[in-house]
Amino acid sequence: MLASGVNATPTRPYSAWQSRQRLERIRTLTKASAQADGVDALLFVAGVDGSYNDGSRKALGWLLLGASGHEVRDCMRDDAIMEETIVIVSHESVYVYSIESALPR
Predict the structure, then answer these.
(1) Residue 60, Cβ density class (10 Å: 0-12 exposed, 13-18 middle, ≥19 buried)
(2) Following DSSP, what letter does each residue of 39-103 receive, concatenated?
(3) Higher pLDDT, 37 or 104
(4) Predicted structure pTM score
(5) What's the CA gap between 73 and 57, in Å, rounded?
(6) Distance between first and last Cα of the chain
(7) Which residues have CB under 8 Å from 7's CB, separation 6+?
(8) Neighbours of 89 (CB within 10 A)
């Protein structure tokens, strides 16, 4: 369930297992893209460095915050995790760059 408003984020618990399952779905996609189109990796930059890219914001909300359905559309644009995080996913590896202050304690 989401809180109301545009700046809503998922409120239910989201496990590491669920995140890994979603990550594996993206890795499968990158493997198929590498074979078909020569695309080596996907880059997700949702914050100011990515010009607040809507697709990256939605992908990171789905992957990192556990958003699904309408929650993906409504993930917070100003969420610190997404603002300061860059994710690169290939079929062989995953890189996550974030500043320490953006990570939950």
Answers:
(1) buried
(2) --EEEEE-SGGGTT-HHHHHHHHHHHS---THHHHH--TT-HHHHTEEEEEESS-EEEEE-GGGS
(3) 37
(4) 0.71
(5) 9
(6) 23
(7) 76, 77, 78
(8) 20
Both tokens of 28, joined, read 């499968």
- 28 against 77, higher pLDDT: 28
What are the tokens at 74?
Answer: 């409504």
Tokens linked to 77: 């644009």
Separation CA 80–CA 30 (nearest Å) = 26
Report the chain's mean pLDDT, rounded to a whole number. 76
- Predicted local distance difference test score (pLDDT) of residue 95: 92
Which residues does 45 contact at the CB level (< 8 Å), separation at least 6?
A: 53, 56, 86
- What is the token pair recorded at 16? 């590491």
Segment 3-20, tens digit of pLDDT: 333 344 454 567 888 888
